TrEMBL record:
It comes from the Eukaryota. InterPro entries: PPR, PPR_rpt, TPR-like_helical_dom_sf. It comes from Rotaria magnacalcarata. PANTHER family: DYW DOMAIN-CONTAINING PROTEIN (PTHR47928:SF146), REPEAT-CONTAINING PROTEIN, PUTATIVE-RELATED (PTHR47928). It holds the Pfam family PPR. This is Pentatricopeptide repeat-containing protein.
Length: 241
């Protein structure tokens, strides 16, 4: 498919497809650089090269490339932040955030909030969250990672306050609050939320989160009852149970 996009002068689609590939091989990278050659844009080339380096887990070279770039846009910062989060180096993600002048982008705050989730410092989290513009606070993805972050820092009041403000929760937000309750030993509350969810919004992740929540609270019978009523039991669900 990559080759087809390149042969039809659709370099942008080829690069978008590359970003979805988890473990690119040598041939994939050759096709990627052919796509870059079609773009002819320095910014596009730099972004694609950086993403390729991060995918190869070569963050040292990616950082050197980033530092050598004359002008790094939002995309470059986002790629590096994503790489450091995956490497479990959230402090470097925050260092990049502090360097930025134009921070008000949802993709940037998504990576920063994920970094804060790993750090688990309430005061630090609060100081950065206060900087998020109000319009971004209504973004579904931002709301989901915020629920996850507050849950991991033990700020369950913040979790409930945020969740209650969401007019129509999606499956990711339901899974996030169930997981947050579970992490804080509130299995009963997690089950109450689970029982409220429409069947069309319950997926594998939701089932795994509720089973884990029951486990954290020692609710063995409740977990067994939920497990027995799961229509399609995946390997991950069996493993969790």
């Amino acid at each position: 498919m990559l080759k087809g996009y390149i042969e039809n002068n659709q370099a942008t689609k080829a690069i978008q497809l590359f970003h979805k590939i988890k473990d690119p091989n040598y041939v994939i990278f050759i096709l990627l650089f052919n796509s870059c050659a079609q773009l002819g844009s320095d910014e596009g080339l730099n972004l694609t090269k950086s993403n390729a380096l991060v995918k190869c887990n070569d963050l040292t070279y990616a950082q050197s490339f980033f530092d050598a770039s004359i002008k790094n846009g939002v995309g470059m910062y986002a790629v590096m932040m994503n790489g450091y989060n995956k490497e479990n180096n959230p402090l470097k993600t925050l260092n990049l955030f502090y360097q930025m002048k134009d921070k008000n982008h949802s993709i940037i705050y998504l990576h920063v909030i994920k970094a804060l989730s790993r750090i688990g410092d309430y005061k630090l989290s609060q100081s950065i969250i206060e900087q998020i513009p109000n319009d971004l606070l209504h973004d579904n993805q931002i709301q989901t990672v915020l629920i996850d972050m507050w849950g991991k820092s033990g700020s369950i009041d913040k979790v409930k306050e945020l969740f209650d403000k969401i007019s129509q929760s999606n499956q990711y937000q339901y899974a996030a609050i169930i997981n947050a309750y579970g992490l804080n030993g509130m299995g009963i509350q997690a089950i109450e939320i689970y029982r409220q969810i429409s069947l069309n919004l319950i997926d594998e992740i939701t089932h795994i989160c509720i089973l884990n929540a029951c486990s954290h609270s020692g609710l063995v019978q409740e977990a067994r009852s939920i497990f027995e009523n799961i229509p399609i039991k995946t390997v991950s669900i069996y493993t969790t149970m």
